[in-house]
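*** Residues and shapes ***
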Amino acid sequence: DLRAAGFKGDLLPAISLGGVADVRDVIERPILMVRSGPALGPVLGAAYAEAETGDQNVIVCDTGGTSFDVSLVRDGRPVRSRETWLGGRYSGHLTGLSAVDARSVGSGGGSIAWVDAGGLLQVGPESAGAMPGPACYGRGGERATVTDAAVVLGYLDPEYFLGGRMALDVRAARNAVGKIADRLGCSLDEAAYGIMTIASEHMVEATKEITINEGVDPRESLIIAGGGAGGLNLALIAQELGCRRVLFPRTAGVLCACGAQFSDIAREWSASRVIQSDRFDLAEVDSVLGHLRAEMEEFKRTFENRTIEGFRQEFIVEARYRGQVWEIEVPIRSELRSPEDLDALAAQFHDAHEAIFAIREPDQVIEFMQWRARLTAILKKPAMEAEFADARGAAKPAKRISTYFRETGPIEIPVYRGEGLKPGMRVEGPALIVEPTTTIVIYPGCRARVTALGNHMVEIDAPKTRAAKGA
């Protein structure tokens, strides 16, 4: 009982819109919590991007034990979609629930590596889970995972996993990956690097789907990386996508959980009314929007005795060219009452369609399908301020560790403890930066610097790295 324990605040569970809601609303509509965890990653990503770089287009990647979740922040806001699945994409149930668009693939730290009947190396979607977990956990697991490959490659410090609270079994990891190497007829290091590369390719394809296929050039985007396994290979993913910067927050290992601290109370209302641009009924649209405005105002009154920073109101319509299957979201005014308003709305749709699909058909009839109103009650956020004085100078490694990279072969590299790195310090790759909840691999041709806020910005030298790979 939270009250008995002395809790005097409001209980605000996370919801799929990328915000939080009153617990009573969630009890009435528990479906609001579907995929609510991944929905908070881009909330934190948008906050970090604004504070660190001012970037408006951000790719947020979260790599956990069983999956890789990727989402997009466009124009400073998390991208939402009604293509929300309960269960696997295309294998589960399509709910139609408006939610942050987070795509998942079964490729995480616990994803199992295996060799198929044709002798090809595969990774996932089966996962070792938490029990028994990867072989290196020493809990009875015998099948090689991405985490085991990282241990073999020297990308994890076996003596400082989880901040030193858990020792990793290197021998068990080598035995598990060794079985894969024997099947492939290659060295242990080559097998481990192959596992890491294939896992990365799955993640690259998921990222392309949510960026390139949606009209976003990943080369012009900042990647914000999180999850316990996010630091193992996100530099590889960035290289393949052509991204030049990857930001690892200090809270990277708990990215989505931390996102709850930066979330606002969100509520959405919708009305289905199909109206075509060649027979646009202004009176009917005004009636629909008026009903949505009334519901929004009624909900706003519930905040009269609560402390909030303010409200943000948004009105959206889902629209498409006649004959299309999928709709796109178009921001609209709260009132549409004149032919000029319709002309402006049509122009907005054409612009949005061209931005996403590179096609503009001004003579086509537009179908307006779903009308929505979204209210955000803005809550006070934790301050993002520089916690340390600038300490430009050479970073001092805590130790050195034997690793393997395709560009270098076996090589001994420095290991830095995150708490020992201060703003302004730089780390040249190859190297490791170890935080209590994640490890960041600085690949050859990359470098990291500690930002004024104490986060790690990894700069990718993609052309040099690709040239090395091509050689």
The chain has eleven helices and 25 strands. The CA atoms of residues 85 and 94 lie 5 Å apart.
